[in-house]
Amino acid sequence: MGTTQRIVPGVTGEPNWGNISRGVTSVAGTIQKEQTEEKKDEPNTKKQQQLTKRRQEQVKQTVGRLIQASGGRAAVKSGRSATLGRSGRRGAQRLSGFLSVVATGGLAAALSTVTSPLANLTGLTNDEIIRRIVAYCSDASTGMDETAANAACNHLMQHYAEQAQTPEDLERVMQGAIAANGVEFLLCEYFGFYIFEHLSQRFQEKITQDRGKAVSSATFDEIKLDIIGRVRVMGATKPISQINWHGPQGHQIIDDIFDSVLVIFQ
Length: 266
Known about the structure:
The protein has one domain (18-263).
């Protein structure tokens, strides 16, 4: 879903991305050291633990730099930043409303609110369902922020589709996830994927050119796992409640969830 665009620090109208680029490069360097240690006949366990801790801290600092370069936490969470946050919030508002209908009325009912009415899921594939959901949650604009939001929605839906063979399975998986954790938890995951996509779009091409495809893939796999792991831990503490996601209360809770995700990286 996403596209990679290399950012050149110092371009007029763009934040200076140099510190973030160096942060991502430092993560890649640590991962290379981890890989070297793992290949040894007798890996040094203590050194491996130190490298893991270093990588986790580097990822946290890098995301923090992304937030700061985008205008700071307050600007990002409120949608005032033109770089990060605006499309993520809009996508979350649409996604939360859609998921709330899935929880109470099923997937066909939720899809009927965004396309022509559906009596059931007959004739649809999981891929088609996901395309419809992403299209509904997507922004009409086509900038990097919008691309990141669309990719985040796709990541989240694909995560649940991997556990389903049929549309009926997908409905059960999604309803089960919402029943167990609440829409709030899924929004935490969505925002985690959204932040990851901003890093991936801007810097994966650079790491591929500098360190090679294998190291680049490993680097961004680890960054994604780290970000999603952190937001899932945080998301598990969010209270489950009945919310009108389309109203002011729902919008405020989305802002609060987004802010909670941003806080863990500062």
